[in-house]
Amino acid sequence: MFEIKTLNKISASGLDRFDTTKYAYGDDFANPDAIMVRSAAMHDYAMNDNLKAIARAGAGVNNIPVADCAEKGIVVFNTPGANANAVKELVIAGLLISSRRVIPAIDWAKTLKGNGDQVGKMVEKGKSAFTGPEILGKSLGVIGLGAIGIEVANAAKALGMTVYGYDPYLSVDAAWHLSRSIKHSNDLKEIFANCDYITVHVPLTDGTKGMINDQSIATMKDGVRILNFARGALVDTTSMIEALGSGKVAAYVTDFPDDDIIGVDGAICIPHLGASTPESEDNCASMAAGELIDFLENGNIVNSVNFPAVSCPRSGKCRICIIHKNVPNMLSAISAIVSGNGINIENMLNKSKGDYAYTILDIDADGEALKKDLEAIDGIIRIRVI
User: So what CATH class is 1-83+278-307?
Assistant: First the structure.
């Protein structure tokens, strides 16, 4: 019986995928096989020795100590694309409210309460203060063409915008989903120089932190509107406040409010609603559960952020799953032990990701008999026999 610990409330769409004859789930397990988490902070979480995997029901994994998990042989999964539509819809809303001044107009309209028959005249007299441009025919720069960025780019194109896309790591699979009419930019300078609106959809790393700053803003068009539904720290708040004050940036829409940006004229602060839809929560939970089930039962890794994607149909009597350092001669050492015990390898698959690698062996013998010898190889982190 596998034990799945939940650190947040997880949608029934995910939990219902677990066969209760094989799995037990809840929030009170002391020694779980796996963890499902949404936003709970895990950097100070004490990882038990039995823990094999963590599934984040969402895309970002900043709340999980990914590198430490890799060292311990704990596979961390996320659910890319499961919340893409929800975020896309809010980004499109962000484009509109950054232009049409809808929010201050609504706030102003509330102040007219109590004026009786005069409200209509007051509306007609005061509405000119809230005019704003249409997005039709304007240019949008999409920085980061992952699952969300692609959907935003395609939707904006359908709304009549000229769309520039930038992503030096664009995958072949992602490219298939991107409209051919999107202008591919090889340099951020082209985005900054040509776009009336810029939306950021990249992960937060040392290289992307503060990528929207005083220097990059200075190269943008006057009156640019910037949207951030990815991670708050991608935008340097001090630089943004200065740019809003000078008018260089006409509006900044962020899904990540902080104390400094709240209340600044031109800043539209949304309380992290990007993936806050029942459909998104269901999709993320269902995908996370599926990843855990396939890993725990078959050893397959799909959508891991700290180990390579390794997945294949099972063959043979037994499957041995080996997490190890990505070092020379590892496969020959593993093969030597298997063949030295007179066992034939039915199928073998190995892939690496950075300093770590993952190997699946299918054999027609008892894998437990090999486990001790395999664990003695220098660089082996964890072995599971399924």
Answer: alpha beta
What CA–CA distance (Å, rounded) separates 69 from 35?
12
**The listed CATH number (3.10.450.10, 3.30.70.260, 3.20.20.110, 3.40.1280.10) that belongs to domain 310-386:** 3.30.70.260
- Per-residue model confidence (pLDDT) at position 173: 82
> Is it the case that residue 379 has pLDDT exceeding 90?
yes
What are the structure tokens assigned to 213, written together?
A: 């700053």
Question: pLDDT tens digit string along 225-252?
Answer: 999 999 999 999 999 999 999 999 999 9
Strands (E), 245-331: 249-254, 267-269, 318-325
Full-model pTM: 0.83
Assess if CATH 3.40.50.720 describes domain 133-269.
yes
Burial of 4 (0-12, 13-18, 19+ CB in 10 A): buried
- Which residues of the chain does CATH 3.40.50.720 include? 1-83+278-307, 133-269
Residues whose CB is less than 8 angstroms from the CB of residue 27 and which lie 6 or more positions away in sequence, other chains included: 5, 6, 7
166 close to 193: Cβ distance less than 8 angstroms: no
Calculate what percentage of the chain has a pLDDT beyond 90: 95
- What's the CA gap between 314 and 298, in Å, rounded? 7
CA dist 385 and 244 (Å) reads 58
The pair phi, psi for residue 383, each rounded to 5°, is -130, 135
For 273-303, give one letter per residue: b (16+ CB within 10 A) or e: ebbebeebbbbbbbbbbbbbbebbebbbbeb
Q: What is the pLDDT of residue 221?
A: 98
Alpha-carbon span 156 to 175, nearest angstrom: 17
